[in-house]
Amino acid sequence: MNEDEMRALINPRTRQSKELFNKHFSEFPDDLTLIVLKGHLLVERSLTAIISHYAQPSADLASVGLRFYQKVALAKALVPSFIFIFPQEFWSFVDLLNQLRNDLAHQLESKKLEKHLEAMRTMFTAHQKFLGWDSYPTDEAKLKMLISFWLGMLDPMEAFVHALEQSKVYNADLLRLSQVLREECSKWSDEAPQP
After folding, report:
1. pLDDT of 68-107, one tens digit each?
2. How many CA atoms lie within 13 A of 113 on its CB side?
């Protein structure tokens, strides 16, 4: 796959994600709870898309009912680490976003919320210095920037995983291998002790 083909694969995904982000983040006031919940849903959507590339087309991932932390663990295990530009920072952000969501979704007054917001501020400051971002006065604005940045990383990653999975070539040797496997499995069960 050449560079132009890769851009053709990435751009529609990036465009769709940007449209979703703009739709859900520009039409409501700066409310921390809504920002966290909607950001969490957008990140989860991208993680699900990454995981789905490794599943069979007939798989119904929604029926499995994977929780967010399970999707994170699966994506972490499936995605080659070399495609992440900042692997540890990304997973730290996803973990922090999930902690914030849990703080806001499960308790009216979480005792951990301020600690998690402080971690978010620290993360924002590190990104701000590295990426040259402007200073933002509110936690809501800082969190929107972090969500936007990491969604911008997730789309190309998802497109890359898609390209990797599409480029796998299955040939007749694999079909013959599956036949041999079935033959060996049937021999095993024929030779196994009977109850």
Report:
1. 999 999 988 887 766 665 678 888 999 999 999 999 988 7
2. 15
